[in-house]
Specification:
The protein is an alpha+beta fold. 52% of the residues lie in helices and 17% in strands. Strands 1, 3, 4, 7, 8, 9, 10, 11, 12, 16 and 17 form an 11-stranded mixed sheet that branches. A two-stranded antiparallel ribbon has the order 2-15. The chain is elongated, with a radius of gyration of 31 Å.
């Protein structure tokens, strides 16, 4: 009987109720979207590298090493000699290594010199390996593999020729145009800095710099692309290298041994620790999103209270008739609360369904068009907690119009309106 009265009351004001549900659903959709983006941004940030136990570079701070080796931001303080790399690579606790050589670019995108182990061992997110949307890893000296964003933004396809520029700036006046590269592979979107990188072999980095010295072409000397292929292209130095251990327990021991390496000043960092420290520095962004979420929630409830209080004025006669037919004040109070719970639940379900639909159908578009990897899994512990918080808050806020209706004088509602 009580629920029947509640339902009939809502249906009698279906227009106002529908607008209230719609307004609240829009605000809650915005709230769930912001919260989901906040969680996914953090997850995407921390999943830029996975399965790598150590990152080794020249002596510097761990954040600087992490930024230039993984996020392609900033520049290294120094290089690592090839002999040192080969020596550490032979450590009995190390299973695999991936060398990285930086210093060149193409239209603002970083060029990474590496070897075939990069495509076998580099992982992101939850141990996801790199995969190709087209082509294959580089096999010849002047082959290049493009990240998804590079290929998409610059419109490159397999077989296109590109010229690498010296330096890492977005604008360069020194190009290795005597040794063009051919696109042989395009990687799948990863949502990580890999999408913004071009990958060539370490030997290719050596080849394009054979006739260069101190960052500029040597006057009067020129080594053609064909002549370079006949040279010894063993690297003299690399920028950094990634390390995978046979046992993760040994990571701390090997890290300490590398940091104490006597032949060359080196720094070995644990990626997870460095990522956590870096995210702490960026926590202001996360806090900003939380503040926006709180403001959206406040605006939603403010609108709900305003709507309920406005409807109370229109329902004075309805409430008075209920009281005249025997309804107790507490019944009126519970009736208002039931209506608010119904409106809030309808808005919650609508908002969750809307955001889930957007994520389901827009996930592929965001990944392909913008390189943003957002999980379509909206329902999780945080979402449930927020939903419960919203429902409880709505019940508390509904006490304002419910108490107003509770105290409403019977004769006031039934008094003739002039």
């Amino acid at each position: 009987m009580f629920l029947k009265i509640t339902l009939k009351s809502l249906l009698s004001r279906r227009g106002t109720v529908l607008m209230t549900v719609l307004t609240l659903a829009i605000s809650l959709s915005l709230l769930f979207s912001i919260e989901h983006i906040r969680q996914q941004a953090k997850a995407s940030f921390t999943s830029s590298v996975s399965g790598t136990d150590l990152i080794v570079g020249a002596r510097s701070g761990q954040l600087n090493l992490l930024l230039y080796s993984i996020f392609r931001v900033g520049n290294p303080t120094n290089n690592i000699s090839w002999d040192t790399y080969q020596h550490i690579k032979q450590h009995r606790q190390i299973e695999w290594t991936v060398p990285i050589s930086l210093g060149d670019s193409h239209q603002g995108y970083r060029v990474i010199g590496t070897n075939g182990d990069y495509f076998r061992h580099f992982k992101y997110a939850r141990q996801q390996p790199l995969s190709f949307s087209a082509g294959e890893p580089f096999g010849q000296l002047y082959d290049v593999v493009l990240g998804a964003e590079v290929a998409r933004d610059l419109g490159y396809t397999l077989g296109d020729e590109i010229v690498i520029s010296h330096g890492t700036g977005s604008t360069s006046f020194m190009h290795h145009d005597d040794k063009p590269f051919t696109v042989v592979g395009i990687l799948q979107t990863t949502g990580t800095p890999v999408d913004k990188s071009l990958h060539v072999s370490l030997e290719a980095i050596e080849a394009i710099h054979l006739d260069w010295q101190h960052g500029a072409p040597m006057p009067g000397q020129s080594v053609s692309a064909e002549e370079a292929m006949q040279k010894d292209l063993t690297p003299e130095a690399i920028t950094a290298f990634l390390v995978g251990m046979k046992s993760r327990v040994a990571s701390f021991t090997v890290q300490r041994q590398i940091n104490d390496y006597r032949n060359e000043p080196l720094t070995a960092i644990l990626p997870g620790v460095a990522l956590a420290e870096l995210w702490q520095m960026l926590s202001s962004v996360e806090n900003l999103l939380r503040i926006i979420s709180a403001l959206v929630l406040f605006a939603a409830f403010a609108g709900l209270v305003t709507t309920l209080l406005a409807s109370m004025k229109e329902r004075e006669r309805e409430i008075a008739i209920l009281r005249a037919t025997g309804a107790r004040p507490v019944t009126i109070f519970l009736l208002i609360q039931a209506e608010v719970i119904g409106i809030t639940l309808a808005a919650l379900v609508s908002a969750l369904a809307f955001v889930q639909g957007i994520l389901y159908f827009g996930q592929s578009y965001l990944a392909e068009r913008f390189g943003i990897m957002i999980s379509a899994q909206l329902l999780n512990r945080t979402t449930v907690d927020i939903s419960l918080l919203i429902l409880i808050s709505a019940i508390v806020i509904a006490c304002v119009p419910a108490i107003t209706a509770y105290r409403k004088a019977l004769n006031k509602g039934l008094a003739p309106r002039i």
